[in-house]
Amino acid sequence: MAAAEYSSSSDDDFPEDEEDLFLGGDQGTLGLFASSEVRFPSASACLQDARDKQGFDLSALCRRLRLDCFGVIRLVNYLRSAEGCQAGPRAVMAAESDEAWRDDRFMKPVRMRCFLL
To answer: What pTM, to 2 d.p., does this model score?
Structure first.
């Protein structure tokens, strides 16, 4: 296929409701932290709740620590583990490095069917 035959698309071409479906919007997603059993209608709603109620901004932390996709996976699994629960959202948000969740054991999901991953 020639390069001219490829079409590019932007995020604007992806309908918002389909994005939520891709992120688990059809079944909802459990809260970000281990202690949460609250189910949110979408991953976006889950992350917004963490920002609003617990002062935890996943996007800001990932940018500040320059986490790659594996770092984000480890972080989410860490937050849902006993260690992350014990540390608490504010302590994790204040972390200066990813040392606490750098271990490869955090590559394994704590919760199955995690739409945040």
So the answer is: 0.71
